[in-house]
Amino acid sequence: MDGCSRPGPLFSFGVIADIQYADIDDGYNYCQSRRRYYRSSLQLLANAQESWSESAVRPAFVLQLGDVIDGFNKGCAASDRALDAVLRQFGSSPLEVHHVWGNHELYNFSRSSLFGSRLDSSPRSDRAGPDIYAYHFSPVPGFLFVVLDGYDVGLLGRPESSDQYQSALSQIRQHNNNQDLNCPPMLEDLRQRFAMFNGGFSKAQLDWLHSVLSDADEKQLKVTIASHLPVHPDSTCPICLAWNYDELLAIISAHSSVVCVMAGHDHDGGYCQDEETGVHHLTLEGVIETPPDSNAFGTVFVYEDRMVLKGSGRISDRELLFCDKNKKLSLIA
Ligand SMILES: Nc1ncnc2c1ncn2[C@@H]1O[C@H](COP(=O)(O)OP(=O)(O)O)[C@@H](O)[C@H]1O
């Protein structure tokens, strides 16, 4: 036996973002700069499922980072059909799937109808609040995953008559005076994020996260946060950032337990390691803008001291070392 061999992973999980399936011909993004492969995205999901199923270390679960079907389905009255197709594909293997909600979920379905639906993977009794799709789960002792709701504050999926809609409208209008609120403010800075296809985290959700992380700090857990919207400006283009990303970053930096934030939404992907906290911010390349002869999924192998992302196709391999706990604690103190 080789005495120098490193111990194997504690567990692994699959990651995939922005599948945006629709049974329509290829098209382009709004700026006409990126091709979108609406139909073939289902086959790329099938490729990912096949790889996870055949993996020597069976993934403990799959993290679906939002935008599972495209908003175009709504206009064709095909939302349920498209969702059936995607969930049938996910269901072809016994892997548990944790669904994050993105803007395209909310183009197809109202927020109220998503709660309790097949895209609701939360344990109902244990959400951040009755109207907040944020929850946590622990696949293996010592590790916690927190799914966040990036549209808890926002215009999407809510009746215009609701207080929450009106409050989000006045918030976005402070920064965006375009007639079409999907058109980001014509600015060169991070205020470009104030577009209707983004949203933010309510105070209730942030308070809940703070208490979940306090408990995780105490128990010395390693926490990975999953959000459709990226929250670090160096991990995405500014147009895709969460409205109140800064409030989320402040909470993360006040806790020693967070090791990684995983997001979707920016189909080009992105990555940075926060210099101050050592937290890794990984934005996964989107399936929808991935040619049929490539792939966009990953398998993350988790060790005591690191996570290793094995990417496929457009997603690169990465080693994400966990920052030294004592260093983090001294930064917080
Ligand atoms: N620059 C823009 N100006 C106006 N509308 C836009 C702009 N960018 C996107 N949109 C609109 O916003 C919605 C979401 O855009 P989309 O590119 O589909 O989002 P995602 O990046 O989540 O796939 C679509 O209806 C799209 O037409």
UniProtKB/TrEMBL annotation:
Gene3D superfamilies: 3.60.21.10. One of its GO terms (molecular function) is CDP-glycerol diphosphatase activity. It is an enzyme of class 3 (hydrolase). Keywords: Hydrolase, Metal-binding, Zinc. Pfam families: Metallophos (PF00149). It catalyses: CDP-glycerol + H2O = sn-glycerol 3-phosphate + CMP + 2 H(+); ADP-D-ribose + H2O = D-ribose 5-phosphate + AMP + 2 H(+); CDP-choline + H2O = phosphocholine + CMP + 2 H(+). It comes from the Eukaryota. Residues 12-268 form the Calcineurin-like phosphoesterase domain. CDD domains: MPP_Nbla03831. Its cofactor is Mg(2+). Its EC number is 3.6.1.13, 3.6.1.16, 3.6.1.53. InterPro entries: Calcineurin-like_PHP, Metallo-depent_PP-like, MPP_ADPRM. Belongs to the ADPRibase-Mn family. Monomer. This is Manganese-dependent ADP-ribose/CDP-alcohol diphosphatase.
